[in-house]
Amino acid sequence: MFTGVIRTISHARKWEKKGGSLFLEIQKPHAWKIKAGDSVAVNGTCLTVKKIQLQAMVFELMPETLSKTTFGKKIPQRVNLELPMRLSDRVNGHFVTGHVDATGKISRITKNGTSKMVEISFPKKFVKLVVSKGSIAVDGVSLTVTGSPSTGSGTKFSYFSVSLVSYTLENTTLGERKVGDLVNLELDILAKYGARSSKRRI
Fold this sequence. Notes:
There is one protein chain. The protein is mostly beta strands. It is 12% helix and 45% strand. The chain has two domains: 8-82, Elongation Factor Tu (Ef-tu), domain 3 (Beta Barrel); 102-201, Elongation Factor Tu (Ef-tu), domain 3 (Beta Barrel), CATH 2.40.30.20. It has helices at residues 63-68, 166-171, 189-201; strands at residues 8-18, 21-27, 39-42, 45-52, 56-61, 78-82, 102-112, 115-123, 135-138, 141-151, 157-164, 182-187. Strand 1 and strand 2 (21-27) form a beta hairpin. The longest helix has 13 residues, at 189-201. It is globular.
């Protein structure tokens, strides 16, 4: 379990596809004490460390992960990293599992002083799980949805917006994103359980 509060940015050193899986090598932060078998959120995707090299962590991404995340479409040069939360930690963001629900696409970026408003398109089938002032993880970053999601008529996509303050722009890879870029989306786990509970009552 994670919180969506990114503590460091690293970069992909190299990658290789074998037998349908992707083996991804990422620069290990110097201060991290980590071993094989540990979990790390990489751009919001919970991955298991396969092995540790002198300065790198190696992950194996299976076909299911590649089909649900941006890693199956393009390997980013720089990635957001987060270690799992401890039970004694403060939850500064929200509960993030690292299980990506879908990929979204940045459709608009508007500057507002030192912050930016970013509009993201996402599959319309998830629109009931994205609510105004609710939480959402974008590339692993815990954000608040601003305004009610809109639905484009005659399309398979809906849209939501998030506001990125200067700290987020400077300390996560979201500050580098451009219109047309793909991002990993994880919907709020409370919204998902609430929707499932409602269906059972019906």
